[in-house]
Amino acid sequence: MARPRKPLLSRERIVGAASALVDAEGLDAVSTRRLAAQLGVSGPSLYNHFRNKDEILDAVADAVSAKVDLSMFDESDPRDWRTALHDWAVSYRAALTEHPNIVPVLARGPGRRPAGLRVADAVFGAMVRAGWPPAQATRIGALMRYFITGSALGSFARGFVDDETAYDPGDYPHLGQAHLLADRQEEIDEGAFETGLRALLDGLTAQYPTAATAARAGGAGRSRADGP
Amino acid sequence: MARPRKPLLSRERIVGAASALVDAEGLDAVSTRRLAAQLGVSGPSLYNHFRNKDEILDAVADAVSAKVDLSMFDESDPRDWRTALHDWAVSYRAALTEHPNIVPVLARGPGRRPAGLRVADAVFGAMVRAGWPPAQATRIGALMRYFITGSALGSFARGFVDDETAYDPGDYPHLGQAHLLADRQEEIDEGAFETGLRALLDGLTAQYPTAATAARAGGAGRSRADGP
DNA sequence: ACCTGAACACCGTTCAAGT
DNA sequence: ACCTGAACACCGTTCAAGT
């Protein structure tokens, strides 16, 4: 065929097909050859649009980040950082659990993908506006990410086998009911997420700088070390 | 050569060589052929000891779980669940950051690997002994796992590029200092972990059932739904 | 610029054959 | 039981050739 008058491919089409393949069959099922076949082209064509396969998967992950709702950081009272952080975390987790197979890629870090950066930017900006010192705002963005991606990645309950004999009481004295976890996977993971999120927000609320502690810490102003 | 009088391989030798390869060159560098070459055998020999490559990587991950210190759950005052949970989390994270390349495998879930199960068993048992209702103890084990593996997996700072021009202020109004994060990776990730761990423990302390709430919740005793 | 087929250097896994 | 080489059906990526 050689070069067609109108390009057969685009980054968007490739990312769309790759997303569908990841969702349907998992990360391991994505090969450049299979992906190209679904797009009706030959394997090497993809390399006109992406440098390599990893870049395609990064773009798939970033498309998920792009779906995370960030409006709560603009619209709400900037002083109510707790509610905004809560609603964002729930929205973020929902976006990830809709596409669980790409989470390992997404969890590799936010720093090089535009939508992931937009998320980091929004959280950091909102926390600073709410009165958190910049160094703490950086930490909050990071630790929330840890918890959210960790919960989307490592389904705790999914890891257990639905087999009463799998967990020998001699080896695991407290796991007598563990085989029941497999059945109630979603409920348990969601309960753990909610309990953890509440604990995190309660704990952060307790660390929120009052006027007194802010005055004690103040004076130096924002330094180079406060990031990002 | 065919069959030697003394086996050339063992599961332990294979796991050891695989661990070294993962640590030195990353997950992608592990192929059955390279691994076999380092062990002085041909590729298919591995299949006499493991069903497939995934099982080898699972065993590598489990070897890391086996290094997590669990003694705090036996030795300390069972009422001091907070200190035990803290020390365990620090020990767990330390084990993971020593072998960051295997964390994606480990994060897939604890349910099928013996050392991972031993960890889940110890945490669950200690929380129940400390007075947490079983359903909450399950959640605590899960949410702590989320946070710890999330923090080991997705280094927040590592994701940023050390390039002042990489973060356009038009796109990311609050990320003016983001390129500085790359330099101070370890410090930032550790600070975020510590801040988050403290927040989680503070928040859980606030949720710890007092005698009053325990009495209110009591009566039914432990039910099938409390897992695990 | 954007596609193609051919080619290179790999993969994971199966299997019959050897001791 | 435990290793081997050969073989199968794949990979990601490069590159010259085509329009």
Automatic annotation (TrEMBL), chains A, B:
Query: Which residue ranges does the record assign to the HTH tetR-type domain?
Result: 8-68
Q: One GO BP annotation here?
A: response to antibiotic
- A GO term, aspect molecular function: transcription cis-regulatory region binding
Query: Which residue ranges does the Swiss-Prot or TrEMBL entry mark as DNA-binding?
Result: 31-50
What's in the keyword line of the UniProt record? DNA-binding, Repressor, Transcription, Transcription regulation
Classification via InterPro entries: DNA-bd_HTH_TetR-type_CS, Homeodomain-like_sf, HTH-type_TetR-like_transc_reg, HTH_TetR, Repressor_TetR_C, Tet_transcr_reg_TetR, Tet_transcr_reg_TetR-rel_C_sf
Keyword Transcription on entry = yes
For this entry, the protein name equals: TetR family transcriptional regulator
Lineage, please?
Bacteria, Bacillati, Actinomycetota, Actinomycetes, Kitasatosporales
